[in-house]
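Good morning C.,

I know you're traveling, so I'll keep this short. The sequence:
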Amino acid sequence: MTALSALPRLLLWFLGLSLSLAGVAIAADPFARATLTTKGTIYAGQQIEVDVDVFVPNYFLSPPQFPLFDLPGTVVTMPDDRGLNLNETVNGEAFSGIRKTYVITPQAPGDYALPAAVIPFGYAAVPGQTSQGQVTLPSLKFTVAAVPGGEVGTPGVTAGEITITQTFDRDPAGLHAGDALVRTVTIRAAGLAPMMIPEPTFDTPANVQLYRHDPVLSEERTSRGDITAGLRKDVATYVFAKPGTYSLPTISLPWFNPANGSMQTAEAAGATVNVGAAPAATPALAPPAPPTTEEPFDWLWWLGIAASVVALAALIQLAANLSGRLETRLETAFKQRALSEATAFRHVLDACRDHDATRLEAALDRWSRGTGNAPLSRWLEKFADPATANAFADYRRSRYGNAHSQKAGPDYTRLRGGLKAARQRWLTESADDGGGPESDLPDLNPGLEAAPPRRLRGAG
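The tokens, ready to paste straight into the viewer:
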């Protein structure tokens, strides 16, 4: 077979392959379809259902956003928010689908068509990758017929079945002037949304006031959650101001049954209300006052009060004891600090700083007696340097010498610094010996304090 004769076969093979690939590509695209599930003739005011299915290859990654579209001349609702999951194979390709059901109630006869609404979604065109897609609501047409015998220009009520029940809160035959009677009317419409149930008419007799309450709309569902009927409950209160006999009219609702093509009427029977005169107010003898009874003594309450008082007193006493102990400890601490060696020597330094000879004499005498460093001259010979000893001798001459022996005033600054250094050496030596200055100074002898101080060796 020559190459020329094989060329047509090769072209046919390529053409078949291309068509096959095109068929797969077409089958792999998302698509949508709409189905009218209501069968038979559709009448104005009848509630019909339209299923819209959206299919994608592989699986959804974000659910379709079904729009609540606007269709002129109808009322469109989507009562069930849940979607039905579907699986389908098209041309050997597996598709996943989600179904939503629209409920459409046409208000007038005529031809209707679904609008081209867009439904976006996300799906896995390639497994593991998100692709954004959308489909257009498929074109679906349906025809609505007029209700036989219905009024022109009014949609009427078309349902599978409508029943009306009513209750009264009391016997209508036993009222008096000024009383009120509550009438509750419940309408059940199979195959009709609650919002599509007409409002019942409450005709009011003369001399009767009527008060309407807000209606209550609900749905009757099966154990699986499927809607079987719409419910509307209306409550009206009649107030009869005058006695007499009144007739409450029948509440009726005409409706069309598409199953047999006939008009029917649901009714709530009227009622006759007999209202008598209001009973005259007769003075009644006041019943005797009941004997006064004393309240039983509440032992538990008084025991609780007593326990609370005792506990409070114990807390106050405890606080007072703790406060007294704290005050005593603080007072002892302050007293010990005031009688300590450091405090006594601080008085010596303060007197030197103020150049107060009298105060200095008393402070030195108290410190030396309290620390056992008397006579002070011996302590100075051991711990003070010569300059400090000379400054102290000048101080003693200025205080106890005659005017001729006093050349100049004592050098309090040198004396202050020298005494401070001597005390430091004394403290260091006492610490090395394992002892130390006593923390508290003993009480001084008042008689010794009153006696004139002894003159130290070397004093002029």
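Safe travels,
E.
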